[in-house]
Design brief:
- The protein is globular and about 55 Å long.
- A hairpin with a 2-residue loop joins β2 and β3 (62-65).
- α8 runs antiparallel to α9.
- The chain folds into two domains: 3-65, Arc Repressor Mutant, subunit A (Orthogonal Bundle); 70-214, Four Helix Bundle (Hemerythrin (Met), subunit A) (Up-down Bundle).
- The chain has nine helices and three strands.
- The longest helix is centred in the C-terminal third of the chain and has 30 residues, at 185-214.
- The protein is mostly helical.
- It has helices at residues 3-17, 28-35, 39-52, 70-94, 97-109, 115-136, 139-156, 163-181, 185-214, and strands at 25-27, 55-59, 62-65.
- The chain is 76% helix and 6% strand.
């Protein structure tokens, strides 16, 4: 693996997991030393993260991790809704029903009790997303969704503390997968719309609760 790829993946994981919080300064000298790479591959990695919208240039040699607020989340979900509803509708028309019937069964058996179970659940979601992309087979749509999903990892951390929402999300994903397996394009799109509406509402509520708890 190239040094720039290694640096990119490490920084991406740290930003998405919250290890590098919004506003964290990423100085070239410090990060080069910490990651064990020279400045050229580090700059390449930071350039990719800037293209992803995860960091911004504060000065010629200082980069900061971007923040994410309620307006950012609303804008992200507006794009996500358009892309994912389209994907669900197309997948219902083009996918192998057996693939999504199996995913529906996995969602039906999924648990969100405990960190390990939640990680397993998000793994099923990742495979569901990959199956959607494969079924739709549209490189432009898949590329746009990859950008959304990159940011969504950070946003999803806000929902991990809400077990009721996670349990509802499992049922919603099961319905979407079942609709695709049944080749019901309108139900697949509508179920996706409801899922994203509920997810956005829950995340914004969590963000507001956190703001109130941390405001003096």
């Amino acid at each position: 693996m190239r040094a720039s790829d290694r640096a990119y993946r490490t920084l991406l994981d740290e930003i998405q997991s919250g290890v590098l919080a919004p506003g964290t300064v990423l100085g070239e000298v410090e990060q080069s030393s910490r990651l064990g790479v020279s400045r050229t591959p580090l700059r390449e990695a930071l350039g990719r993260l800037a293209a992803d919208g995860l960091v911004a240039q504060a000065s010629p040699r200082v980069t900061v991790v971007t923040g994410i607020d309620a307006d950012d989340i609303r804008e992200l979900f507006a794009v996500r809704r358009a892309l994912e509803e389209t994907s669900a509708r197309l997948a219902a028309q083009r996918a192998d029903p057996a693939v999504f019937a199996e995913l529906a069964e996995e969602f039906g058996a999924a648990s969100v009790e405990g960190a390990a179970a939640m990680d397993d659940y998000y793994d099923v979601i990742a495979r569901f997303d990959a199956a959607l992309d494969a079924a739709v087979a549209n490189d432009y749509l898949s590329a746009a969704l990859r950008t959304v999903r990159t940011h969504l990892v950070r946003v999803r951390r806000l929902a991990r503390d809400n077990p009721d929402r996670l349990a509802a999300s499992v049922a919603e994903h099961r319905l979407i997968a079942s609709a695709i397996a049944a080749r019901d394009a309108e139900l697949a799109a509508h179920a996706t719309h409801i899922h994203l509406h509920n997810a956005l509402t829950s995340i914004l509520d969590s963000l507001e609760s956190f703001r109130k708890d941390t405001t003096p």
